[in-house]
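Chapter summary example.
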Amino acid sequence: MISVYSITALILAYLFGSIPTAVWIGQAFYKIDVREYGSGNAGATNTFRVLGKKAGIPVMLIDILKGFTATNLAYFVGAYTFAKPHSVQFTNYELAFGIAAVMGHLFPIFAGFRGGKGVATLCGMVLAINLQAALLCIIAFIIVLLITKYVSLSSITAGFVYLIGVTFVFPGGPIGIVIYGMCICALILVTHQRNIERLLHGKESKVNLFKKKTTTQAS
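The structure predicted for these 219 residues follows.
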């Protein structure tokens, strides 16, 4: 149901996602625009690489919170449209608002539409929609990261694990969840295209998220 409440929430979700955490923290506390260093992305991974964990951890947590908060706007809209939690209509609201937040992170209106790759915001969205599948993704991400030190490969793996999780491990939800899982995989593949090319050629940078870096190596 399209209403003034859903349209307003959709705009708010995009604005939540558009908060350029990495850019604002970098400029406020380090006088640095992280987009001018490392991978050139305004995301948590590049913040860890360029500014270290003191900046990277809050950026990551806030970016996750953006997706989580935006997705949960479904409860606000649902209260006015009689969409019951976990119903198809409610899930559709969650998906719409979460995707709006991710698009805001990718193309933030507050930072010249130059954002990050959306993985942390996607994580927050997944946490709000399906906690079990989200935890499965996080476990997969951590395992791959510890083994390979490739954040890009970890993100790609987590995306596919989510699709497998909602399709086979925790089935029974609305079909929109599975379609969303497919979209996540496609989005991650598109935003990580250059990383995939470097992985295939053995040129992808390995990352130690807990070691401060101030170099401008590519990611």
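To summarize the output: Residues 1-117 form one domain.
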